[in-house]
Amino acid sequence: MQCWTMDPVVLLSAFIIIFLQADVCLAENRTQLFRDIFNGYEPRVAPFDTLPDVLHLSGTISLISIRSVNEKDQTFSASIWISMAWEDRRLKWDPDSYKEITTIQTTSKYVWIPSSVCIFNEVTNDKCLTEEKPVTIYNSGTVVYTTSRESTSQCKIDISKYPFDTQTCSLQFGNLFSSSEFIYFVAPHSFYSLAYFDRSEEWEVVDTSVVEYKVPGIQQLHYHLVIKRKPSFIVLTVLVPVIILSILNIFSYVLPIDSGEKMGTSMAIFLTFAVFLTMINDTMPKADSVPPFMVYLSTQLVVSGLTVILEAIVLRVHFSSESTAEKPEKCKVEPIDLDPEQKKIRTWTRIKEFLRMVKSKLTAKRLDMIFMVLVIVTDFVSFIVFMAETS
Asked: Which stretches does DSSP call E strand in the chain?
């Protein structure tokens, strides 16, 4: 019995030829598919004629990154992918006739796209979906248009709870020619995706949603993005230093009066406050309304300035009481019978003596204690009010 063996090189060559023939056959089928579905196809004509032939459009926004949230301009900037899907019945085919090909890719130059769909709250000139971008066509006639953009949209920024604030920014998609182009947005099949989101250092994404906005003659899809500011950086670089400086303010009242350092210490803390707030001014949000956080910082600056004035009063009382103590008191003999003018003079004299007595009793140390308590109460109340307003 003779055994036949085949050369491995010949066998490999046979497989390569068969594979190439299959690829060529598939390529020929794909080419023929393009010729068939685009034969007589007019990309400038929409796939609907009247209102009953309304086109159902769904969209998915994929957030890539958050670029900025501008409190002054009331804008939100982000990098996004936009995918729009609709059905064009002119682009259907039977996969069995084309070697089970179910999808083909081309550009939006060769198919009709809903170029009247725009982002209504976009602040740049790039509002509508008019760019030539890749499209994927399915055998069912579904067309998926995909584009990317750097979007800057209007967003109402509320900084009343800064730096513990939460913002809701939206992209408002709608049909620019709603009276002539019959496009219906399908909210249940539209999504706001975070699959490709790159984590932001300043903001945390809390929630996403797609809501249908509908009034007579207008239908839109609002893609809502809820973001929360990460407060750790602001707390560590701004709030904690301000609290430490406010505590140092209190300790300036503890210094001995005769040390000669009270005025210098309070002045140094005040200048530190002023310089520090000037340095962090660029990091603070710019808006028409003043947030409680800024009110708290300004309050601490004012208290630090008042500390300088109060320490000056303490020093004044201290040194004036020392000079008064060195002078011996004079004995005064008052007459028994006084006329009205002399009675008025005696009344004023008694008032002055009372004030002098109060002044002698109100020593510099007591003033220091009173002022320190007032500053502690002011710091505590301002901090509690700030936390209550931002919580």
From this structure: 55-70, 75-87, 103-107, 117-119, 134-138, 142-154, 166-175, 183-185, 191-193, 203-215, 218-229
In this prediction the pTM is 0.76
Dist. CA 246–CA 20, nearest whole Å:
80
List, in sequence order, the alpha helices (H) in 252-291: 262-279
* 173-190 mean pLDDT: 85
59 closest CA partner among 86, 36, 26: 86
Tell me the pLDDT tens digit for each residue of 199-234: 899 999 999 999 999 888 788 999 999 999 999 988
Q: How far apart are CA 33 and CA 98, in angstroms?
A: 7
CA-only gyration radius of the chain, Å = 40
| Nearest alpha-carbon partner for 182 in 338, 54, 76 | 54
Residue type, 168: T
Phi, psi of 289 (to 5 degrees): -85, 150
Q: How far apart are CA 227 and CA 77, in angstroms?
A: 13
Q: What is the pLDDT of residues 21-35, one digit of tens each?
A: 444 444 467 888 888
| Confidence label for 2 from pLDDT (cuts 50, 70 and 90) | very low
Residue type at 173 in one-letter notation: F
- State the Cα angle at 77 between 75 and 82, rounded to 5°: 125
CA distances from 305 to 3, 22, 157 (A): 108, 86, 33
Strand, helix or coil for residue 83:
strand
Tokens coding 163: 């730096």
**Mean model confidence pLDDT for the chain:** 83
**Buried-exposed string 154-165: b where 16+ CB fall within 10 A, e elsewhere:** bbebebebbbbb
Look at 102 and 10; give whichever has higher pLDDT.
102
What residue type is 108 in one-letter code? S
DSSP 309-339: HHHHHHHHHHHHHHHHHHSPPPP----SS--
As a whole number of angstroms, the distance between CA 354 and CA 366 comes to 18
The Cα 156–Cα 152 span in angstroms is: 13
| Cα 221 from Cα 197, distance rounded (Å) | 21
Q: Residue 203: which of 157, 147, 154 has the closest Cα?
A: 157
Lookup: tokens for 188? 């249940």
Task: Of 88, 84, 108, 54, give the one whose Cα is nearest residue 191.
Answer: 84
